[in-house]
From TrEMBL:
The protein's name: Diaminopropionate ammonia-lyase
SUPFAM superfamilies attached to this UniProt entry: Tryptophan synthase beta subunit-like PLP-dependent enzymes
Domain Tryptophan synthase beta chain-like PALP: 41-379
Cofactors: pyridoxal 5'-phosphate
Keywords: Lyase, Pyridoxal phosphate
GO molecular function, one term: pyridoxal phosphate binding
Length: 404
């Protein structure tokens, strides 16, 4: 399925709160935080000229978040950052003084954090980020997981000392349960999706994601007189947070020079595409699970939709087979391209590009041609190594060895 954006708000200005959160000032804030993290390193941007030629486009670059903060996912930028910000804000109120970004290490601040418990629902990656942030600050974390979260991903969360609560149902069910339990216990919910009256913390999570956009723009190759900025960007959605953060930041910093932005959903959990069709956030029916487990969300985040309705240009779905094909294509590249370890959800944006490039109608609608410069984001590496090996026929280490 493919839809062009026909929303009444399309190409109107972002809401002031979204512009403040996701623009240059927001990227500055997450940048200051990352500068205080000893585990921080800029993630790589890979050029894939071989695949670009096959797809009939001028250039293709993949921002590889499989290396982010030791967690293997872009989510490392969001939940942990929000936890640290909230700890610092609570400490400022308690102590009556302004604190810098490095203050979370101070014993006085850690004493405040020790009295705080952060809770969230997760498909796997967001929970790891919240748990890591809580451990870093000296706070507690309680992570709610649903029936579809693999044992490997649960174990990866528990390694950060988080308490794990299991619930039946889908990701959306776990979001409701996390909010309910946190309300009863007085815990702080750090969710990557929003709801009525709950927007600031998901906004902080999305703000964290702007770091990868700024990095990518700085890493793109340049000519003597200009940076070769992307003409097109394809980003996977889930509840919409990563897509909205990337689209908003590009629109705010590039203005009229912003790229054509396409949101990619799994066909089996297409909540953003259905919002585009309906013109408002809607909950889609839960059917057969998608292999893109980190994107298996059936209701969009309202603040993400508020952004995407204004700055996304197109919306499309990909099938499970498309994602698996993209995983294997990155693991077994043509000569001249690097091998990239991309999880089943991580390569959904690339799967969208590959599907669009093969369809003459979508190519024309998006203006994809031999001069197009496309950016996609590998949002996660092999966060479930066993599942990765099943789908690719190679272990993550074997693929990484090819890239070395």
């Amino acid at each position: 399925m493919f839809l062009l954006n026909q929303h009444a708000d399309y190409r109107s200005g972002l809401a002031p709160v979204d512009a403040e959160t996701l623009g240059g000032a927001g990227a500055d804030a997450i940048g200051r935080h990352l500068a205080e993290r000893s585990d921080h390193a800029v993630t790589p941007l890979h050029g894939l000229p071989g695949l670009a030629a096959e797809l009939g486009i001028g250039a293709l670059h993949v921002k590889d978040e499989g290396h982010r903060l030791g967690l293997g996912s872009f989510k490392a930028l969001g939940g942990g950052y929000a936890v640290i910000r909230l700890v610092l804000e609570a400490a400022e109120l308690r102590l009556g003084r302004k604190l810098g970004d490095a203050a979370f290490r101070e014993p006085e601040i850690r004493a405040v954090a020790a009295e705080m418990t952060f809770a969230c629902a997760t498909d796997g990656n967001h929970g790891r980020s919240v748990a890591q942030g809580a451990q870093l600050a000296g706070a507690k974390a309680v992570i709610v997981v649903h029936a579809g979260v693999s044992e490997e991903r649960i174990a990866a969360i528990a390694r950060f000392g988080a308490q794990i609560l299991r619930v039946a149902g889908t990701y959306d069910d776990s979001v409701v349960e996390a909010a309910r339990i946190a309300g009863e216990k007085g815990w702080i919910v750090v969710s990557d999706t929003s709801w009525g009256g709950y927007e600031r913390i998901p906004g902080l999570v999305m703000q964290g994601y702007t770091a990868l956009v700024r990095e990518a723009l700085n890493q793109l190759p340049s000519r003597p007189t200009q940076i070769c900025r992307p003409t097109h960007v394809f980003v996977q959605a889930g509840v919409g947070g990563i897509a909205a953060a990337v689209a908003a930041h590009l629109a705010l910093v590039l203005g009229e020079a912003r790229p054509v932005f396409t949101v990619v959903d799994p066909a089996r959990a297409a909540c953003i595409v259905e919002a585009a069709r309906a013109g408002r956030p809607v909950k889609v029916a839960h059917g057969e699970p998608t292999v893109m487990a980190m994107l298996e969300c059936y209701e969009p985040s309202p603040i993400a939709w508020r952004v995407l309705s204004r700055v996304a240009d197109g919306f499309m779905t990909v099938e499970d087979a498309d994602a698996v094909t993209a995983m294997n294509r990155l693991a077994r590249p043509v000569a001249g391209d690097p091998a990239i370890v991309a999880g089943e959800s991580g390569c959904a944006g690339l799967a969208g590009l590959m599907r669009a490039a093969a369809d003459p109608d979508i190519r024309q609608a998006l203006g994809l041609d031999t001069s197009s410069r496309v950016l996609v984001i590998n949002t996660e590496g092999a966060t479930d190594p066993e599942r990765y090996a099943e789908l690719v026929g190679l272990t993550p280490a074997e693929v990484a060895g090819r890239a070395a």
